[in-house]
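Students often ask why we bother predicting the structure of a whole assembly rather than each chain alone. The short answer is interfaces. A chain on its own may look different once its partners are present, and contacts between molecules only exist in the joint model. In this exercise we take two input lines together and write out one structure for the complete complex. Read the inputs first and try to guess which parts will touch.
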Amino acid sequence: QQQVKQSPQSLIVQKGGISIINCAYENTAFDYFPWYQQFPGKGPALLIAIRPDVSEKKEGRFTISFNKSAKQFSLHIMDSQPGDSATYFCAARRNAGNMLTFGGGTRLMVKP
Amino acid sequence: GAGVSQSPSNKVTEKGKDVELRCDPISGHTALYWYRQSLGQGLEFLIYFQGNSAPDKSGLPSDRFSAERTGGSVSTLTIQRTQQEDSAVYLCASSFPPGRGELFFGEGSRLTVL
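Now the answer. The structure tokens for the assembled complex follow.
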């Protein structure tokens, strides 16, 4: 069964701290791993993505770490800001198509 | 605007009624998806259209749910004989052909079944 497990469900971080969200998958046919950010009342929007041939990708304060052997990947938000408060979803795409399987989401709150 | 447009943004209906939700994808995007987001939950895949291919309906939860896409553009998700457990936000997304990666989501249609 295609499944992506995400943790924690909620996270509270102080401004300036590091936010870490973890995901694990089962299907080795997944070949693309994006993270989406969703603000209340809005649809999810692509934040950053990685392919399994690299172990890390960094864009500004956001970094994805990928461990292919463990079938795990994580999002790190450095110097977290109150404006980062949102729900974050990891996802995985099977190489046969473009349909994404999403994790359950993490509600992040960054306290000023 | 140039984004994915969904309507209505909010729909309140009585149990047993039929509802239609509309999605207007980004021009040029050949792939269209419907996802469901229940309160505090993740995104549940419902259906996927790609060009003229037969849609992937594997995520539809029951035969009360159906969707069509006319002319390769606008899509309508229909829920017949609505139940309270159908209450959720229904999200539509579109993308370029498979392999291009990014899905662009609309703001969703919030359905409340009383």
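Check your guess against this: DSSP finds no helices and eleven strands in chain A.
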